[in-house]
Amino acid sequence: MLLIHCPYCEEARPEVEFVYGGEAHIARPLDPSTYSDEQWEEFLYIRSNPRGRHHERWRHTHGCGRFFNAVRDTVTDVFETTYKAGEARK
Amino acid sequence: MSGFRLADGGRIDRRTKRNFTFDGKARWGYAGDSLASALLAQGQMLFGRSFKYHRPRGILGAGVEEPNALVTVDRGPGRVTPNLRAPSVALHDGLKATSQNRFPTLKTDLIAVNNVLSAFFPAGFYNKTFMWPRAAWEKVYEPIIRRLAGLGDSPTTRDPDHYDATYAHCETLVVGAGPAGIAAALEAAANGGRVILIDEQEEIGGGALSDPAQWAWLAEASAKLAAMDNVTVLPRTTAIGHYHQNFVVAAERLTDHLSLAEAEGAREKLWRIRAGEVVLAMGAIERPLVFEGNDVPGVMLASAAKTFALRYGVAVGRKLVVMAVHDSGWRDALALHKAGVNIAAIVDLRRDVASELTEAARNARIACYQGYAVTSVSGGQAVKGVTIALAGIGKGQQLDCDAVLMAGGWTPTVHLWSHAKGTLRWEERWGAYVPDKTHENLRCVGACAGDWDFGKGLSGGLLPAPKPLHESKAFVDFQNDVKARDIGLAVQEGFRSIEHIKRYTTNGMATDQGKTSNLNGLQIASGVLHRPVTEIGLTTFRPPYTPQSFGAILGHHKEALFQPLRKTVIDDWAAAQGAVYENVAQWRRARYFPQGSEDMDAAVARECRTVRSAVGVFDASTLGKIEVVGPDAAEFLNRMYTNPWKSLEPGRCRYGLLLGEHGFIIDDGVSARLAPDRFHLTTTTGGAARVLNLMEDYLQTEWSDLDVWLTSTTEQWAVIAVQGPKARRVIEPLVEGIDLSPEAFPHMSVREGMICGVDTRLFRVSFTGELGFEVNVPAQHGRMVWEAIWAEGQKHGAAAYGTETMHVLRAEKGFIIVGQDTDGTVTPDDAGLGWAVGKKKPDFVGKRSLSRPDIVAPGRKQLVGLLTDDPQAVLEEGAQIVADPNQPVPMTMIGHVTSSYHSATLGRSIAMALVAGGRDRMGETLHIPMPDKTISAKVVAPMFYDAEGSRLNG
Q1: What is the pLDDT of residue B113?
Q2: Which domain holds residue A22?
């Protein structure tokens, strides 16, 4: 079971308190109607799926309830860092 | 009958006898014996039959690596455990063990004919042989394979034992309590931190238990550990897996070593341990050698014979021959000789062996054959002798013996290290992989780190032989009956990676996960491929380290504690009324309320008729509820839902449809605007948490400009639906401060006031098509208000109704249930809910997707009604629909039935279905093929009752 540091609670808590939220830094366009079908497909479905550093979202669902971002190595599962939503990509 | 009890020695208690049975025959041993040592002491050599060829098999090892001697232990009904390793079963009074994989008996096994035919059962045999005729698979091959396959029989009755579970935290966790582990634990404990030391055996000591010279030290160290407050020592505990961030799961066996009369409390306890540092001291496992006849009962690991003699006081034979490629074989032979076991000869493939070993052997009058290899073993159910030859190919020479000890070198036990994704490095000196790097705070000590004075040796396990590889019966994996030639064949057939060779030959895939076979298999593949071992790869170790009972993994999470059961405040009332329940998500909901001898159909028909003709009361408390508050609440809902919300006046309700960004329906519900900045949202029962999560996601990460707060209020409100033409009359006497007249309180509106003296949010809404109210009251008053409404309802002939009636009534009106009539690929238009999409809204979640090419393409599945030609035929939900019932199989399926009921109101069946191009098929007859007949039905609009909606007015 992973221990995940919640940047809002400033505490490492067990994985059962969190829910995974998919890849991070995929912003919803301000006006989706301006997107072509291909751009919209990219936004909806295309993910980077890297081997190594992965920027991803977690929600501390059974804690503070906040969404935050994390950098996790997909090979080792080691969290490099976690940071608040809205902060720049790390 | 070869093994016997030595006159002295061992850690057994010779004053305490233990009586047990093996295959129904009375046997005995001493306290401190394992099942294996007690049986060996009584001369038992044959312990089981092999998996594929049913060859007779004896003991190979003295620990958890044992692949052959699998037994079933019977502790009474529901307490039958198959596949236990005889060396790891502690002896207790009354133990009932039976051998496995034999038919009908261990000595006379009819399926051993497979052995004679073994030339026809090569690697990949199943894949190659049972290909045709195709029809024979189901009727002939599969039943036979199933009869023969598998190890042991799975239990058929309920396990009456219970299993405990706990969490633990420590600064240092040491896995393995041999000398290295004990030293690590003492060192860590001296620093004052919490230390947990776990070991899979009956007592701590590991390898020291087989070395009397270390017993004084062991006793002293054990006493020291026991005296330290910060140390927890857990024997009979197996670390089954290492998970992220030093989270180790271990299973402690609490009662299996006791007789049933002595056993109290939980059978096992699962420890979930989070450790600052994990020290692995799991030792090493000796490797067998691969030669013709290496599986005859009596051929075993040298280290095992040493353990049986020195720990249990049992000689495994009267005349032993040691086949070594490693110094440790000589050392063990000398230790056995010292303990009074007759070693006739030491055969070593190496010509050069350290002189102190050869001299010691000669002084002990042990014949030494250096440069020789065993080329065959005589004897069927027990060893009678061996043939040895110079370099394996010289002239054969017979040696009499009744046991053969193999010393093929050592394999560090790196399983948990690998679970932790630690990398491995090939160590030529060991001829094995040893731990290299890890990102965890984890280290290996002692033999499992490769840090151990074990002497020198050759690393390859396959002995040279006069026969070519493809003719030999030299076993690599004893438990799965994989021979060296199977690996050769796999390579010949083109397999190159060990992961593929493993799966094709099944080497290392049995319950022992290749503890004694992986390295030999790897080296044989490397030899045949003429490529270094490191290029062949290494198979992955996965938890559990040894087979683990499901009971311990489940722990307390069974029956009522399997998962939380959510009950409404009216649940008890329903129970008292004899309600039949169904589970909806985690909620328990009353499905129907049978009266007298009514079955479900009769009860539901009565409940439906009562709602349509008088009034029904329904507990809708499980509806998901979210309070949306803030100056931007309306703007937020406008962005989330398909419908327009800004224009909704306070006091009014709206049906909201929620999509994902992909444009498909994910939830719906009626919501009310209580004030300009306050909404009372409802969601589906199962969708509440998901919807709240989605809304929080948008609010927190996309629309941080909005000032809105979301609160889950699902459990704060009890909801009582009162539905039917007499609904108003039922609640009228109870309500204060709300004008219930149709003019003042129209359909789809909400009012706040009092009912039965408590606050209420009273909704005028209908999921039945009848005049209806949903009374929301604070949950603590729900039962009181329900009973008051019920009492009032009795004056008007009210019935309580459950979810089944709710489903029928809504289907008569064509109202969808998300998740039943939708499946995650249904758009608003597909569901006939295009009217709920705000066409003028610039954006909402999912809007862009509604214009994607596939979404606007013709021929999408659309929700329609179906009326069967036979009005009494009720279609099966999920049944497939075809246009032409006479087309050949496989038929083209154009849709499926989503909802189907008998409607008492209409006196016939009704159904809803998703059908390709459904709305263009109105009036068409479609067909639903069932196993026994094909049912025909006409496509109609999904609205079966009161299409004009006049009944909403009562």
Answers
A1: 61
A2: 1-29+50-90
